[in-house]
Design a protein that fits this description.
The relative contact order is 0.28. The radius of gyration is 15 Å and the shape is globular. Strand 3 and strand 4 form a beta hairpin. It is an alpha+beta fold and 154 residues long. The protein contains two helices and eleven strands, in the order E-E-E-E-E-H-E-E-E-E-E-H-E. It has a single domain, classed as Alpha-Beta Complex (Nucleoside Triphosphate Pyrophosphohydrolase), CATH 3.90.79. The mean pLDDT is 96. The two termini are 27 Å apart.
Length: 154
């Protein structure tokens, strides 16, 4: 299981800060692909932690393929998120400070399929996002990706 702490004065201190990549994947109508995470039950952008020996772009491609079945290519950076007040606590004792690079992507192939990390995949129109259980930091990333002409750095 995973618990997100955001601006929580009682959050445990971070003990890791691995780089992560996340994808903005849009369909023809502009809806954004989100996954319902198996570990938290919340809707989130596909992505995950970078492995030693891979680039951040390789991480993005691998994580999106694992979690969605889609092949994507990063096109531009939507934002870089390193807020020390956003920590993710896992059952194994890891407490991450968030360090995520969010990319705009283009889909190059594949077919949507679930993984063990997600219970649902759905393209969600922007105007319907408020009806889903989405962490405030994911809302922020989507807002920046869809409303900012330049990448968010923060």
């Amino acid at each position: 299981m995973r618990r997100d702490h955001y601006r929580d004065p009682n959050a445990p201190p971070a003990n890791t800060m691995p780089p992560c990549a996340a994808a903005i994947i849009r369909d023809e109508s502009g809806a954004i692909l989100l996954q319902r995470r198996a570990d938290s039950g919340r809707w989130s952008l596909p992505g995950g932690k970078m492995h030693i020996g891979e680039t951040i772009a390789d991480c993005l491609r691998r994580e999106v393929l694992e979690e969605t079945g889609l092949h994507v290519e990063p096109t531009t950076i939507a934002g870089i998120y390193t807020d020390p007040d956003h920590r993710l606590a896992y059952d194994d004792g890891e407490v991450r400070q968030e360090f995520t690079v969010v990319f705009h992507t283009r889909t190059t192939g594949g077919h949507l399929r679930l993984s063990h990390e997600s219970t649902e995949l759905e393209y969600i129109p922007l105007e319907n996002l408020h009806t889903y259980d989405i962490h405030p930091t994911v809302h922020l990333r989507i807002h920046h990706a869809t409303h900012n002409a330049t990448p968010h750095i923060g």
